[in-house]
Task: inverse folding
């Protein structure tokens, strides 16, 4: 069974551009979580989607947005990119809308803003 | 609360010794906790979990201890091996419609 898959693995953008990151959860998982991990730092919660709806949002500006599709895959969009947006963006999925189950992570998308 | 953007503390242990990684969690309502291991260039991987109705859970070479009184979680790794070198994160969840909140992480370095 395939795990959580993220694409692309690496993305290089210039300041002011937009980035789109994609995540496919494990089959049967309905919840998708996005986290930002700056180099050498911890994981900062970005967004949580379940059953196509945004359920929770972290302390990030509105230029960070996303959506979840009917097949439960998800997109993270970052508009007006800034240098400090350079980070590893991780997606995780779980079976249900609550997280009292193990969350499985993808390998991440390394976004570099130059 | 949210994990803060602090640089990761490092724990150095000799191969064969036991490792203890600590985590202080923030929400007294949290009822589910997970330890994750993140190797360089990879996403976090599940190690072990524990629910708040337990104070100890054992896996293969790993033990998680939960002290709800002081909101403290620890991960013990027995007979630490070079392959255990990684960053370890604890995560908490309240069990209601919420998100996993991660601790700042600890880098474990295993020396030969």
Result:
């Amino acid at each position: 069974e395939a795990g959580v898959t993220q694409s692309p693995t690496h993305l290089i953008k210039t300041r002011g551009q937009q980035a789109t990151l994609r995540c496919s959860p494990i089959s049967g998982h309905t919840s998708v979580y996005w986290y930002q991990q700056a180099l050498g730092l911890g994981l900062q919660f970005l967004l949580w989607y379940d059953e196509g709806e945004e359920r929770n949002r972290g302390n990030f500006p509105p230029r960070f947005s996303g959506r979840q599709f009917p097949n439960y895959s998800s997109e993270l969009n970052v508009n007006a990119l800034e240098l400090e947006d350079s980070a590893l963006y991780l997606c995780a999925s779980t079976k249900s809308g609550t997280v009292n189950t193990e969350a499985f992570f993808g390998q991440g998308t390394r976004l570099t803003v130059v | 609360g949210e994990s803060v953007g602090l640089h990761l503390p490092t724990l150095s242990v000799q191969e064969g010794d036991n490792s203890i990684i600590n985590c202080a969690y923030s929400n007294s309502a949290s009822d589910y906790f997970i330890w994750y291991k993140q190797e360089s260039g990879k996403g976090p991987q599940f190690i072990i979990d524990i629910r708040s109705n337990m104070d100890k859970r054992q896996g293969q070479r790993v033990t998680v201890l939960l002290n709800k009184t002081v909101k403290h979680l620890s991960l013990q790794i027995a007979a630490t091996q070079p392959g255990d070198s990684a960053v370890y994160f604890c995560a908490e969840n309240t069990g209601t419609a919420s998100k996993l909140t991660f601790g700042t992480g600890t880098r474990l370095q295993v020396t030969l």
